[in-house]
């Protein structure tokens, strides 16, 4: 691109002029390396330089070089420089493949041409091409791992991410090392790519260059991430317009994803072609698999390049073979090329053929390879052609502030999570899931449900309802039994239900469990929904899933399972078993028999239904000798489930207690992850909190004494309520704001009211909610704190003397909306 070349040429001239006046000795060279050595310089990129010396510099030479570098910085250049002798260059290059790579594109700017040529000869002689290729391929794999192996994150890195500029540069570096030139045309001449692929690579490269140039100019710094902050302005700068249903940024980002997809395809193809030329072939003779396919170097290959043209049915056979032969690590370059060119043969007639429907269904039923195969099918356009509804959500963004992937990538992540439950090597991650899926009849139906659970996103309306129609048609077309069809359709319809109940409802309420049990109906549906929900939440974002969400889901599953097996709600919660186990554990701590009775007599059944055995034992040990009267008791400990802090507060109850606690925790930079609010029979609050430092900086064990002493002291002296620290909304929330929602409705028994608040998460949010409740004389009984990425969806069980009046509820809703 001309701007990149002109920018590099301008800097070339400036550097040469400074070199001339700096008085550097004749036996030295100023060399451009890295991207700048390529003769391309982005507006705010570093200027990478090597000052090459024939021998170790003396003191005057060192001073001149320091003055030279200082002049570079003084005129405003962002310089990345190194000073090396020829010998040091050789040593560093042998030790670090990054140095070796930078020198591949070295370009002399000024100084001694002879020493520059000696350095080039030295590099060529030392280059071990197979080792270099293997290192660059491994480097790319590690880079992909940092970005979760996908270009489809909502804020991708257009330089380093999969499908970004680094993928193209990796190809160029290997081509240079192989002596094949540095242009796409030269690779086409060598037969590594076709003329059409050459044009596609050039077009994709120009698009990425323009995106990155515009990004640098918009941000006025070196910025390679397509952050939400910049996407709308970037779309405008690129001349992209909004449509009637999508923002300009969404149109632009879908275009970016398609380009990234094309680059990853061609990168895979070229790396395979390079490997064929560079690496020792070994036994290169093809090993037949059947009369159409063979194995070549552990890759699936076709005997005939035109196979998919005259036999489109073989397209699905190719993917089935990958699943059935675990030694196959992918497809050869010519097979991938043939597959891509023939993707259009997957049409309505192809989809109607019974044998193709049978093949497609078999893809879900294999014992291995499912994750990789469905990713490859999406990558090469087959999945979206076979299921047109899936094709509509490829590259579609989700602006709900907790999904960090496009819709298609999220669906594939969920399928991957289901698959990991079946693998022995991942059994330690979630043992219950592994045990349940091993006993689930036809567990492959979960893959089908995962494929369809979000397939109707972006159509308008309830995507769960729309998606269940797609799922039913698929199941009926593919000959699934009525029971299996009903299960898949039901899972798609209710894929959000279990998560909502676990995170927003009071699981100690028997009516909640009864209602959920009535909805699921039997253990097969319960197990399938639990596993799908588990996989779905984990597939949204690494920040959304945590051990507390896992525990809530598991508690709901186990309680409902026992209820379906005939227990009463109290039995299903295991109250008697919990009390018995708690007493047994108390004996291990040296507490005499019945020492817990005084405290437990003040606790009702709801307490034992709401708290697990470990919490009951901890509370009892801390409180058994002071069940009534006395100062506030505050105890804290590192979380028993995952990183975080558990805090117990036992104090005379008051309407502003929750507000006071929220203020204290917020002032110390701690977020409330979970809260269990309980009032004893004699009017004491026994409240339990799970706290987390959002920044991840706290050593929780170190702050336990501070929390225990300071909070107890503030409660004892009735000190003024702490005001939470101020904070800013996140970038995502600023660009995709959430309209706050507040609803208050009576529970099924009419005893309490359920308050639901959905809004953007921010520091001090809970304090503001607690302030409104206290000001309106509302008592809080439970708090379910659910933070989904940047979105807070909190649910509270409340009561109050005025809430029977509609006007009081309207007033309370209005006050909350004004605060959140």
Automatic annotation (TrEMBL):
Region (Uridylyltransferase) residue spans: 1-288
Gene Ontology MF terms in the entry: [protein-PII] uridylyltransferase activity; phosphoric diester hydrolase activity
The keyword Membrane belongs to this UniProt entry's keyword annotation: no
Catalysed reactions, as listed in the record: [protein-PII]-uridylyl-L-tyrosine + H2O = [protein-PII]-L-tyrosine + UMP + H(+); [protein-PII]-L-tyrosine + UTP = [protein-PII]-uridylyl-L-tyrosine + diphosphate
Nucleus found in the keyword field: no
SUPFAM superfamilies: ACT-like, HD-domain/PDEase-like, Nucleotidyltransferase, Nucleotidyltransferase substrate binding subunit/domain
Keywords from the named record: Hydrolase, Magnesium, Multifunctional enzyme, Nucleotidyltransferase, Repeat, Transferase
Cofactor(s) essential for the protein: Mg(2+)
Known EC number: 2.7.7.59, 3.1.4.-
Ranges of residues in domain HD: 407-529
Domain annotation ACT: ranges: 646-724, 754-820
Origin: domain of life: Bacteria
GO biological process, one term: regulation of nitrogen utilization
Function: Modifies, by uridylylation and deuridylylation, the PII regulatory proteins (GlnB and homologs), in response to the nitrogen status of the cell that GlnD senses through the glutamine level. Under low glutamine levels, catalyzes the conversion of the PII proteins and UTP to PII-UMP and PPi, while under higher glutamine levels, GlnD hydrolyzes PII-UMP to PII and UMP (deuridylylation). Thus, controls uridylylation state and activity of the PII proteins, and plays an important role in the regulation of nitrogen metabolism.
Entry text on domains: Has four distinct domains: an N-terminal nucleotidyltransferase (NT) domain responsible for UTase activity, a central HD domain that encodes UR activity, and two C-terminal ACT domains that seem to have a role in glutamine sensing.
Entries under PANTHER family matching the protein: BIFUNCTIONAL URIDYLYLTRANSFERASE/URIDYLYL-REMOVING ENZYME (PTHR47320), BIFUNCTIONAL URIDYLYLTRANSFERASE_URIDYLYL-REMOVING ENZYME (PTHR47320:SF1)
The protein's name: Bifunctional uridylyltransferase/uridylyl-removing enzyme
């Amino acid at each position: 691109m001309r701007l990149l070349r002109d920018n590099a040429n301008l800097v070339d001239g400036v550097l040469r002029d400074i070199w001339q006046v700096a008085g550097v000795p004749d036996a030295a060279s100023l060399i451009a390396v890295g991207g700048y050595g390529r003769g391309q310089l982005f507006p705010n990129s570093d200027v990478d330089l090597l000052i090459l010396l024939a021998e170790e510099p003396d003191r005057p030479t060192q001073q001149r070089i320091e003055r030279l570098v200082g002049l570079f910085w003084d005129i405003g250049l962002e310089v990345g420089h190194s000073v090396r002798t020829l010998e040091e260059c050789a040593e560093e290059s042998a030790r670090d493949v990054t140095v070796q790579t930078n020198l591949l594109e070295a370009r002399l700017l000024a100084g001694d041409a002879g020493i520059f040529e000696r350095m080039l000869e030295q590099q060529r002689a030392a280059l071990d091409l197979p080792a270099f290729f293997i290192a660059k391929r491994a480097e790319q794999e590690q880079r992909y791992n940092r970005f979760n192996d996908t270009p489809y994150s909502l804020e991708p890195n257009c330089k380093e991410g999969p499908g970004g500029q680094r993928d193209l540069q990796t190809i160029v570096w290997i081509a240079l090392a192989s002596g094949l030139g540095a242009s796409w045309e030269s690779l086409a001449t060598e037969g590594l790519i076709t003329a059409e692929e050459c044009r596609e690579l050039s077009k994709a490269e120009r698009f990425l260059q323009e995106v990155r140039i515009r990004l640098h100019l918009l941000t006025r710094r070196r910025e390679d991430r397509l952050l939400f902050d910049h996407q709308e302005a970037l779309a405008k700068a690129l001349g992209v317009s909004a449509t009637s249903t999508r923002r300009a940024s969404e149109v632009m980002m879908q275009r970016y994803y398609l380009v990234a997809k094309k680059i990853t395809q061609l990168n895979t193809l070229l790396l395979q072609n390079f490997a064929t030329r560079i690496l020792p072939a070994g036994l290169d003779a093809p090993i037949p698999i059947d009369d159409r396919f063979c194995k070549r170097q552990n890759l699936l290959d076709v005997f005939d390049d035109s196979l998919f043209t005259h036999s489109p049915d073989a397209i699905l056979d190719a993917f089935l073979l990958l699943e059935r032969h675990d030694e196959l690590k992918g497809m050869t370059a010519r097979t991938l090329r043939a597959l891509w060119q023939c993707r259009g043969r997957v049409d309505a007639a192809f989809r109607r053929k019974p044998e193709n429907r049978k093949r497609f269904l078999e893809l879900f039923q294999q014992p291995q390879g499912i994750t990789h195969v469905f990713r490859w099918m999406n990558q090469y356009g087959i999945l979206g052609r076979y299921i047109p509804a899936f094709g509509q959500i490829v590259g579609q963004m989700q602006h709900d502030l907790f999904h960090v992937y496009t819709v298609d990538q999220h669906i594939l992540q969920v399928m991957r999570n289901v698959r990991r439950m079946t693998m022995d090597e991942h059994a330690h991650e979630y043992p219950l899931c592994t045990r349940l899926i091993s006993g689930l009849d036809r567990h492959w139906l979960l893959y089908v449900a995962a494929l369809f659970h979000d397939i109707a996103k972006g159509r308008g309306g309830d995507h769960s309802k729309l998606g269940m129609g797609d799922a039913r048609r698929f199941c009926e077309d593919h000959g699934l039994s009525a029971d299996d069809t009903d299960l898949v359709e039901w899972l798609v319809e209710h894929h959000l239900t279990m998560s909502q109940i676990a995170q927003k409802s009071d699981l100690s309420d028997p009516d909640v469990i009864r209602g959920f049990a009535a909805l699921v109906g039997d253990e097969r549906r319960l197990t399938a929904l639990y596993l799908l929900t588990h996989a779905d939440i984990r597939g949204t974002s690494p920040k959304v899933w945590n051990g507390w969400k896992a525990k809530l889901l598991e508690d709901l599953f186990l309680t409902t399972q026992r209820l379906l097996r005939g227990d009463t709600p109290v039995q299903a919660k295991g109250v008697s078993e919990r009390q018995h186990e708690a007493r047994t554990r108390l004996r291990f701590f040296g507490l005499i028999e019945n020492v817990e009775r005084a405290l437990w007599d003040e606790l009702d059944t709801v307490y034992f239904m709401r708290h697990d055995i470990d919490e009951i034992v901890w509370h009892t040990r801390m409180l058994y000798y002071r069940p009534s009267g006395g100062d506030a008791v505050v105890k804290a400990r590192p979380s028993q489930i995952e990183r975080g802090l558990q805090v117990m507060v036992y104090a005379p109850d008051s309407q502003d207690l929750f507000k006071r606690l929220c203020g204290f925790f917020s002032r110390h930079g701690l977020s409330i992850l979970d809260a269990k609010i309980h009032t004893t029979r004699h009017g004491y609050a026994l409240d339990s909190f799970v706290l987390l430092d959002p920044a991840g900086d706290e050593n929780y064990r170190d702050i336990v004494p501070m929390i225990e002493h300071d909070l107890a002291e503030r409660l004892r002296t009735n000190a003024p309520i702490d005001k939470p620290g101020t904070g800013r909304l996140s970038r995502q929330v600023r660009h995709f704001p959430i309209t706050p929602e507040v609803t208050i409705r009576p529970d099924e028994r009419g005893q309490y009211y359920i308050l639901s608040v959905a809004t953007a998460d921010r520091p001090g949010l809970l304090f503001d909610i607690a302030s409104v409740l206290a000001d309106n004389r509302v008592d809080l009984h439970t708090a379910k704190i659910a933070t989904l990425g940047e979105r807070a969806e909190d649910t509270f069980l409340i009561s109050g003397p005025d809430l029977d009046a509609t006007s009081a509820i309207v007033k309370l809703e209005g006050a909350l909306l004004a605060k959140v």
